[in-house]
Design a protein that fits this description.
alpha/beta; two-stranded parallel ribbon; 5 strands; binds zinc ion
Length: about 200
């Protein structure tokens, strides 16, 4: 789950059109993964007040997701389970981190949990979803981008489309939340099939 935070949703400081629409579908995926005892990781933007990406610091974005502020909270309807693994990125004033892997221990945690394949959704398609997906591929993971669970900023109209093209060219697959739910639900019913690579 990438950056499903108030500031990226309508009414937020860096609102993405329809950003909150990803929430119900992501919740279905979260629920299915929990039922199957599969790990879910929540990545969040978590900036200091003087983060270099902010306009008043010479960056391109309005101040957003300042750590500890309401705007940095997960969307109130996102079902973040108690004790969920939360990965904070962009925590250093002087470095940008669109990817959940950048400057975090996400890769280590995924490996420790035995994760070889991920299903990824959230905000925004053309920045943090894109960069997180690319880094996940670089880390050797099989990556499925949940295309009905992402929304883009689209500074240029086709940014999201180009981002998805790039991710797919590098080896990711596009899937839907229903695909993900079906797959992990099936995996629970037939534990012996878990060792095989699930197919979409
Ligand atoms: Zn940010």
């Amino acid at each position: 789950m990438v950056d499903v935070q108030r500031d990226f949703c309508p009414g937020g400081a860096l609102a993405i059109k329809d950003g909150d629409r990803v929430v119900p579908k992501l919740n279905r995926v979260i629920r299915a993964f929990l039922m199957a005892s599969l790990p879910v990781f929540f990545v969040r933007d978590w900036h200091p007040r003087n983060h270099m990406s902010f306009k008043d610091q010479g960056g391109i974005w309005p101040p957003h997701c300042v750590k500890g502020t309401p705007g940095a909270e997960f969307h109130p309807r996102l079902k973040v389970p108690l004790g969920a693994v939360v990965i904070s990125k962009g925590t250093e004033a002087r470095s940008e981190a669109y990817s959940g892997f950048q400057g975090t221990d996400l890769e280590k945690r995924l490996k420790k949990a035995g994760v070889r394949e991920i299903f990824l959704g959230g905000l925004a398609t053309d920045y943090c979803v894109k960069e997180t997906s690319l880094d996940a591929l670089d880390a050797g993971l099989k990556v499925n981008v949940l295309e009905d669970c992402i929304k883009g900023v689209n500074l240029r109209a086709d940014d999201s489309e180009l981002a998805l093209q790039k991710i797919v060219t590098k080896g990711a697959r596009l899937a839907t939340s229903s695909d993900a739910v079906r797959l992990v639900t099936h995996a629970v019913k037939t534990p012996s099939s878990r060792s095989k690579r699930p197919r979409l």
